[in-house]
Every structure is written in structure tokens, then in C-alpha cells.
Amino acid sequence: MLDDVKLVFAYGTLLRGHSNHERFCSDALTIEPASTAGRLYDLPAGFPAMVSSAFGTVYGEAMAFPDLNATLADLDFLEGYCPDSPGQSLYLRRVQTVTLLDSGAEVPAYCYVWRGLLPVDAVPIASGRWQACKPL
Q1: In the chain, where are the structural domains located?
Q2: Which residues, 6 or more positions from 37, have their beta carbon under 8 angstroms from its beta carbon?
Q3: Would you place residue 87 in the very low, low, confident or very high pLDDT band (cuts 50, 70, 90)?
Q4: pTM of the complete model
Q5: Half-sphere exposure of 65 (CA within 13 A, CB side)
Q6: Residue 31's pLDDT is what?
Q7: How far apart (Å, rounded) are the C-alpha atoms in residues 115 and 113?
Q8: 5-35 burial by CB neighbour count: b if 16+ within 10 A, else e?
Q9: Would you give the end-to-end CA distance of the chain in angstroms?
Q10: How do residues 91-117 score in pLDDT, each as one tens digit?
Q11: Which tens digit of pLDDT belongs to each residue from 9-23?
Q12: Which residue from 3, 22, 86, 122 has the highest number of Cβ atoms inside 10 Å of its Cβ?
């Protein structure tokens, strides 16, 4: 199944126009508006966290890369994900269904989901769109 996953879903600093896009996503082959199930929170550290939830929608971008494994290794470092020790990770990388908004197609994508309890001062983002909170 993981061989079928070709996309990464971004919802925060990796989005076009945001602080980590150029460094980590400048080689993206495609970038499409997308959404997935979850709830989004603005963290005091200045970046968002998506948590698993069937009762919310998070909006972002689905990206394809020429070397997905190399990109995932870089993103794992950025997101504090330790594949060998997920219990010590800040985020977990998992595959979930995303909807490509232009076509309505539902496809699997790698998503970084917050692991554990959110900070007490995390602010829910009702719109599911972090870029509305942190434009450059």
C-alpha cells in the first residue's frame, strides 16, 4: 500500500508563501489545493498542529516530489518525527485520505499529525486554514 502513496499533505509552514516552503518544497513537481479529516490548532511556537478527528476538515496542499523518500527524510527531521522511535516524536507521519479540491479525487497522502496532548494555550482554528492566521 505504501508504494501507492505519492503525495505529502502540507497545512502549515510548508505551504507556498510560508517560512519552510522554499527550503523543503521548492522541488515539488505538483502542488494542488487539498483537504483532509482532522482539526487544526495554532500553537504558541508559531506553527500549526493537526490532530486526528472525523469531525473536522483541515485545508492545505498536496505535493508530489521527484524523490519522495529523500523529501520524507527531510520533513521527518523538520517535524520531529523519529521513524525508529515514534513514541519520542513530536508529530507522527501517517497515511490518510486527502481530497484534491480541483478534481474531487480522493487519494492517499503522508500527513504529519500531532502526537500526544496539545499545549494548554493551543488555539483551535475553526476554518481549518492555518494560512488565514499566519500570512507572510
Answers
A1: 2-132
A2: 52, 53, 54, 56, 57, 58, 96, 97
A3: confident
A4: 0.92
A5: 22
A6: 97
A7: 6
A8: ebbbbbbbbbbeebebbeebbeebeebbebb
A9: 37
A10: 999 999 999 999 999 999 999 999 989
A11: 999 999 999 999 999
A12: 122
What is the grid cell recorded at 18? 510560508
CA distances from 73 to 26, 47, 117 (A): 15, 20, 24
For the residues of the chain, what is the DSSP string, one character each? -GGG--EEEE-STTSTTSTTHHHHHTT-SEEEEEEEESEEEE-TTSSEEEE--TT-EEEEEEEE-TTHHHHHHHHHHHHT--TT-GGG-SEEEEEEEEEETTT--EEEEEEEEE-SPPPTT-EE-TTS-GGGTS--
What does the pLDDT average to over 45-50?
Answer: 92
